Queue: 3 jobs
Job 1
Amino acid sequence: MREDHSTTRCFKAPREKTTSTSSLSLRFPRFSILYEYVKNLSGDQKQRVAIARAVVNQPQVILADEPTGALDTKTSLEIMKILKQLNGNGCTIMLITHNMDIAEMGDRIVHIRDGTIV
């Protein structure tokens, strides 16, 4: 049976996950939206929640396709700071962006044009 996402909360709060999602609120101070219903979120708020969900379990690799694309500058810098911290803790980050300011925050830049690495 398909879940109706219009009434789904971004994070369900089972007791065993309380610590992880609570720590997200501390790491993402502007992410007070973590327990809102999806239908109440704007596009950029949904993107913030997606990023928070991606990092909650401290993965070894994150593939981030335009993680800051729809965000304001301040939030973009917050996200990049978090991604840099994750990278410093051993997480590999592969970030795809059209924004050279964001790309230059990485340790390595690979340019792709027309499907070819240049």
Job 2
Amino acid sequence: MKKIIFTLFIAALLCGPLTAKDNKKKDNSSEWKEVGDQGKKALKETGNFFKDLGKKIGDGAKEAANDVKEAAESANEVKCIGKWGFNKNTTTIEVKSNGKIEIRQKQGSDTYFWKGTYTSTLKMLTITVESEGTSSWTVSNETKSDGPKKMRLTYSTIKDDDKAMKFSCTDIPDDADGNSFASSKIFTKM
């Protein structure tokens, strides 16, 4: 773009004297004055062009920065907030917006649970298990000598379906039907 404008400027400077020579009534000083005026005009137009271009680039940069900011905020948003069930709700995962999580799994007549808090990255929740157990026994993980248990739960959305989500977690045992959660399973919103 700069080369084109520079070429136009040089062409204006070179063509100016040619048009001035065709007009024999003008004296030498008026020819140079006209060349100078044409040069000033070309410089002014070039300056205005770059000024407008700078404004457009500045506006575009601001818009691009806002788009990047919105994309980053969207990426950090936990998309799995809600209660999700698998296999007739024999295994449920409830992710709350306040940073709490509860996983429940029915095994025969008993229900196992893991309760805690989570932190999130793009597609993974790192769960700090505060308590786990069944209806007949509970262990508080906060008092363990090696610290609280950690679980990693990965999730992904299903395109065009806000009522289903894929979850996987190697720390959740196989359910009563032998379904392994080490690989992704489709949970539906409850």
Job 3
Amino acid sequence: MHKKKIKATFAGPTTNSRRITTRRNDMEVNNEELRKRFNPEGSQLRRHQMRMLELLLATDAICRRHGIRYWLSSGTLIGAARHKGFIPWDDDLDIEMLEPDYQRLMKLMPHELPSTMALQNMDTDPDYFFFYAKLRDRRSLLDEGNNYGRTWKEQGIYIDIFHFYPQPLWIHKLSELLQGHAYTMCRKGHMGRVRMLTRFNRYVSFPLLRLAGSLSHAPLRHALGTPYEMPRFMEDIFPLSEMEFEGHMLPVPHNTDRMLTRIYGDWRKLPDLSTIHPHVTKLEI
């Protein structure tokens, strides 16, 4: 029996999330000035961010209902820790979870999403060749200019859902090499070859690599075939904590500072704002 569909709800940023400054560990960031510059209310970027927030809240509702553990990650986690919401110029959103939770979510999510959203993975979209999932908005059209998704069924605003399991670095690098050919073939328009290679890796080569990796005591890494290599450590993640993100309390790693420092170094420091460029080439909302 399918579970009852959820209705995605969104409450705007609270007063606290719009404070002039945010101070964390002697760090001060003028969020109001940054938002005026990069994502003022009503701007296309801010509308993009609010649509991603709707996707995140829908995911959060399903995860809480079923006891599925996830956490904000990467730039999204920096945004929570440094800005209490999106990094003002950020146009993507990432969450992470362990492999068992990911597999449960992939089974549950299609039956509990509102009609305005769609889960995108290899099972729901035959031309999709990424080894992680996206949750897509169906009321928008997004073009990132890389041509990877030109034949995908869903092409709206999205959030990325990454999953992790233990594996040595050499195995992960080998998986990147094996699946990397799919990106090259996709750019050349050879989608039949992309599908064949992806199926071979999914059902033959990657299960063998996972078996080999299970024999070692390795840290957590992104799923095989995912082009990211930085490890995660259980002691940094669990037990999960919560942090404010756009007026909502959402799961974050137990030691956010240590995780972000491992990945980015001095994550508290703002980048050179003159070098910031959006990922999105074209967006219709």
